[in-house]
Amino acid sequence: MSGGSLNMSRRSSQALRFIVVGGSIAGVACAYALQDAGHQVMVVEQGDGRSNVYLTQSHGGIRSPPNMTRLLNHWGFGPAIARVSIKANRFTFLEGKSGEELGPLVLHEKLMKALAADFLYIQHGALHAMFVECARNAGVQFRYNTEIVSVDPWKGMVITRKGAKLSADVIIGADGYRSVVRPVVVGPEGVKGVLDKRVSVNITVPTELMRSHKDLVRLSVSPEWSLWLGDDCAMHGLLTVDPRSSTTEYGMVMHVPSDGKPAQNSWDRSQPLDEKFLKLDRFEPRVQKLVKLAQTMTPTSHTIYEPFDNWVHESGKVVLVGEAAHPLMPNGSHNAAMSIEDAMTLSTLFSLPAAKSHTSILLSAYEELRQPRCAATQASELRKRDFVCLPWGPEQQARDDGLRDARARALLDWDDAEEEFLRETWEEYIDLFAFDAREAVEDWWTKWGPAISRSRILDSRIESTVGKFESLYLEVEKVVA
Description:
By secondary structure, the chain is α+β, with helices and mostly antiparallel strands. The protein has 15 helices and 21 strands. The chain has helices spanning 25-36, 53-57, 66-74, 78-83, 109-115, 124-138, 182-186, 207-210, 217-221, 285-292, 335-349, 359-388, 394-410, 419-433, 437-480; strands at 17-21, 40-44, 61-64, 85-87, 90-95, 101-106, 120-123, 141-143, 148-152, 157-160, 165-167, 170-173, 194-195, 198-206, 225-230, 233-241, 248-257, 271-272, 296-300, 303-304, 318-320. The chain has an eight-stranded mixed sheet. Helix 1 runs parallel beside helix 6 (124-138) and helix 1 packs parallel to helix 11 (335-349). Residues 1-5, 52-57 and 461-470 have low confidence and may be disordered.
């Protein structure tokens, strides 16, 4: 990991042993970053670890907002990401049934330059494969076909279905929505939630198929993120790059009412396309044609949880990251971003010049830094989803009229737009996009670092003194003997 203003070095002399439960993006990102910081990391994953699984089955388009892209660039992933990503230029809102353009949200050049990172689209499988490769190269151990069934937080131990016991200084729960580790840390509330009334559906179509339809050609090449606002439902689509062939695909997400029917919780199980379930009759002809080009769809249900009070077990040996800590709505703009921020925060904290005895303090700092940020993002994502899924009626009409009224101002150059309009439009986005996980740790260290450093010096002096007394005691024993 590069130094930065914290001037951190690898803590090989204070290396800790980490076990990461779950090979998710959150898990492998944490594993890579912590190993790179000088620690010893093992990832325990119940899947078989076949290198092509994520690439062949996980074509969904991840949005990498500036707050995520900036961290990927810090890790040196920029050139590799550029080869398999699409740079967004704007978000376009469309009336679902007619296809009328209601208004855009333009990613102005000056704004993105100030944020020092781009808004990108990348396939889930491509990003995951990239982290796995980097983690392996850094020395992370992967233990596949290993299902964890229980955790002993006081011993820092996980137990596999076959009865094997694995121990470490810190157990990281990165095992997603249906986390085994979460209830150990959070308690009963970790398995209680309210089932979302909507289902998120992933659909992917090769752009090669789209180009044979004149009205779909523009969508097959445009870097904009298009959002169709339907009656009690919505669809958004964007371009992604298939890293295996460097061809492009159009990744779609549809948010539709569940109608009381439970959906699966796994992204890797597709099923035949169901036009009625997708409410296709509520969308314009282009959307209907586009969706029908796909053979399958992957619906995913979502349980809404109140933000958890605890992400760190009282033993100071178990911590949650990613969806295990903050289960966001599927297919939002910040699912991967929050996981990457978790990984950067945790690894940066454990790159600080602190002693092994400060492990629980660093984990508490992680919890303190991440909880408010993720809770605010969680609420923002649901609010935006509900905004684009309004049922036809007065509220929906007011929304659409507001987008139409703002359209002319949204297309103005950044310097020509009214300050009040820019503030109203961009304030929440900038709060999300401008956040830097490393800077958050730096601010925390500025406040608490001196006290921790003094404590570390005192601990080392005590250890040295104890060591001298032990040596003296051994010499006396020899003389007496």
